[in-house]
Amino acid sequence: MKKIILCSILVLVMSCSNNPEGFVTHVSGYWEIDEVTLADGSKREYTYNDTVDYFSVTDSLTGFRKKLKPSFDGTYTTSDDAESLTLKLENDSLNIYYSTPYANWKETVIKATEDQLLIVNEQNVRYLYKRFEPIIVEK
Q1: Full-prediction pTM beyond 0.85?
Q2: Mean pLDDT to the nearest integer, 71-75
């Protein structure tokens, strides 16, 4: 009986832990920043965003991130600028490696669900995103 209880507790703990492999499926999509926590612990909440981040990730774990400006008709405007990215599972973490002609950097995915994305950069700044819901105004 003790073995069954111990195994049950172990399964429960393992299923509740963050699994970085499971984060991969949630990264792609349209995200808007909800809150930023700086390294000193101070926070800034975003009640309105005029841009959203679009992450596109392929099956080969490569892709890009792009800033988009949503319109009320459901379309987006953007520049040709994009940051190439590669996702890598390393040391029980999901890391995003970005590359542009000007810089390379890394961010770590702390949490990724259908509705939330939490990323921390190398300066220990945490970006909490929420899934973007477009507002479409019909004529």
Answers
A1: no
A2: 80
